[in-house]
From TrEMBL:
Domain (MTTase N-terminal): residue spans on this chain: 32-148
Reactions the enzyme catalyzes: N(6)-dimethylallyladenosine(37) in tRNA + (sulfur carrier)-SH + AH2 + 2 S-adenosyl-L-methionine = 2-methylsulfanyl-N(6)-dimethylallyladenosine(37) in tRNA + (sulfur carrier)-H + 5'-deoxyadenosine + L-methionine + A + S-adenosyl-L-homocysteine + 2 H(+)
The encoding gene: miaB
SUPFAM superfamilies found in the cross-reference section: Radical SAM enzymes (SSF102114)
Annotated organism of origin: Mucilaginibacter arboris
Name of protein: tRNA-2-methylthio-N(6)-dimethylallyladenosine synthase
Residue ranges that the Swiss-Prot or TrEMBL entry lists as coiled coil: none
TRAM domain mapped to chain residues: 408-472
Amino acid sequence: MMNLDFPNSKHDESRQGEALVLDKPVLKNNGRKLYIESYGCAMNFSDSEIVASILADQGFETTSDFKEADVIFINTCSIRENAEQRVRNRLKEFKVSKMRNPGMVVGVLGCMAERLKAKFLEEEKLVDVVVGPDAYRDLPNLIEQVDGGQKAVNVLLSREETYADISPVRLNSNGINAFVSIMRGCDNMCSFCVVPFTRGRERSRDAFSIVKECGDLFNAGYKEVTLLGQNVDSYKWTSEEGITMNFAGLLEFVALINPKLRVRFSTSHPKDITDEVLLTMKKYDNICKYIHLPIQSGNSRILELMNRTYDRAWYMNRIDAIRRILPGCAISTDVITGFCSETEEEHQETLSMMDYVQYDFAYMFMYSERPGTLAAKRYADDIPEEVKGRRLREIVDKQQAHSYKRLLEQIGQVQQVLIEKRSKKSELDYSGRSDKNATVVFPADDRFKPGDYVDVLIEKCTTATLIGKIIG
Ligand code: SF4
């Protein structure tokens, strides 16, 4: 689970059950309404936009109220047990609607569907259709099967499917930020991770289709694209003419669309992130100076058991390269504590790595064994829950101190902020994000609106937010 995360797109623990509404007119309305709820990573949310696009072409209109839906889909996450439990609880809530409207179709999409396959239909009687992440083109047929009184399953994984030709409709869009998938699947086989089993082999999408999608978004008024992949650094696409493009090349290609289009990406893999990528980031002001670089553990033995294919020294070398080429670049990470056989000294090495990097932000979890993974087959989940809990608290405490320190360092700086919306706390304030992905709140000014870039003088901060005022 490389977390494909941004503050507006947290992983399964923090982003949950968001209902999505289509902002594209449906040309040939079939009178049926679709409700999609997504869990987990940004890739899932991006996939829901592909699903909505496929069904909009079939005449489905989206709704944000599941009670009026004819088709309910939950796009699921399998990364942790509690993510799956939340989906099961949610299904119970749909039961009453289904009793009221027996013709309603309830479908489970995504990683949990892929992991459990037809077993899902036995375990959850309410569910009519189970569809894996590579089978969304088949949804119209599957819905037809259900309309005909059968249950339907398609969990075939593909080596080619990238949905490159499907122009995803934007769901619940603010018209400013959009996710763009550049690849699917993962070949890395980290021992704790279900993704290689639920999302299949790695495939890179046609670079021209990516650039076209980003260009179309910019022309439609969007100001920021986030290029998504489980491991963007292993992006590799070869054209029919034999021209090969790597991630640095793609990044440059997208950055050149327009200097006013901000470019973000996630997720990087420490074994694959190259100096070429860092130098490309340096070359273009519109590529945000923010890298999510999951460490998972600061100890080389645990990293080997996790099959991460880098060690502590390699990771530090990559951090040093980022600091050398991109001074001031924000870095975030993922940490798993209490992995199989992790000793106290090894846990201390994770803490010392955190001190070394002083991350701006981190997603931190206790190890949770997932059925079917290499770790579940090979290693005992032998760290007691209370030890995992205590180690996690130590990690979280340290990260909170580092996050706060990183924000304090920015006081007095002038930062370019993309205004995204009115602040949740006060209608009088705007909220936006800096290049380094920090949330910045400042008094609204009628001269500017969401989607505009403004220079903000950072005057103070809370533990999670920068506060300032527009200058100039
Ligand atoms: S296998 Fe590893 S690299 Fe691939 S998605 Fe899982 S954690 Fe990320």
